[in-house]
Amino acid sequence: xxxxxxxxxxxxxxxxxxxxxxxxxxxxxxxxxxxxxxxxxxxxxxxxxxxxxxxxxxxxxxxxxxxxxxxxxxxxxxxxxxxxxxxxxxxxxxxxxxxxxxxxxxxxxxxxxxxxxxxxxxxxxxxxxxxxxxxxxxxxxxxxxxxxxxxxxxxxxxxxxxxxxxxxxxxxxxxxxxxxxxxxxxxxxxxxxxxxxxxxxxxxxxxxxxxxxxxxxxxxxxxxxxxxxxxxxxxxxxxxxxxxxxxxxxxxxxxxxxxxxxxxxxxxxxxxxxxxxxxxxxxxxxxxxxxxxxxxxxxxxxxxxxxxxxxxxxxxxxxxxxxxxxxxxxxxxxxxxxxxxxxxxxxxxxxxxxxxxxxxxxxxxxxxxxxxxxxxxxxxxxxxx
Length: 385
Known about the structure:
This protein has 385 residues and is α/β, with parallel strands linked by helices. The protein has seven helices and 17 strands. The strands form three sheets. It has a six-stranded antiparallel β-barrel with strand order 12-15-14-13-16-17. Helix 1 packs parallel to helix 2 (49-63).
């Protein structure tokens, strides 16, 4: 009998994942990952990990499976939280959810599961895995979840073949409504529990308020760029990051730190009296300036493409790796739940360029771009510019 360690988060998705595995005859162990308990950077008492842990235990008892808690908080702080602070301080926008899967769930947690004698680890992600043989070698495919509204393949865009080989996604073929129904049929306490939002340790507070605990406020200028002042590039030969200066626009307000803002942000600017909302189109932590444009159709929000540094290119499908000078047509997304966009990948010595068929809004350095063929995620990378 194959043994599976399930990451029980205390939510309905992982609960049903465990229930399905039990039903399928696996030897199942439920493990709750305690990723955060450091009060140094917690400014909200709404982080419900104690409640989540209790719910996870009740689910395990209901299913009749062993249960334990694994404290990964030290590793989580080092690899995820400290990384967040460094990235924001550098003026980039990190995605801790992607990093959590790469660094915690399918690394440290996977190692712990193997130490428990597990053949696989399972999570409640809405994605699927398919395994085929290509040129005599087993290849694992990361497939989008059947529920297009809940597809979470993007969050797993940094996993590798070894990690996929050990991964199971028991609910990836289901709709969310079906998951809720299964939870109800099994009388699981999480059946009607709301989905968690954001990072637990931050709680329901503004991200800048959280970041200010380590990144100090620093007054700077908000500079508005007129819509006819923006020039952006549309080809690799001219591909350079757009750089603004105060001389190009008008100072319309003051902020408390460029590192607290990200491209495409609308809220928290504190600038009124405009015909349309202002959106952040660029930040500069060196001069501590943020640049804004009026309206969500401002050309400064749009980019034809992006670049990924050579060392940051990751292929889930190593058999599809591009060599310098090679191209590939695919579909790409630069944030969770963004509809897939037609694009062309081009590999050069300077890295991987992704040129979109249609300009994309709010391309932010530090975020992950993921590329797909049909419904299969085949690669990803950190956006450099």
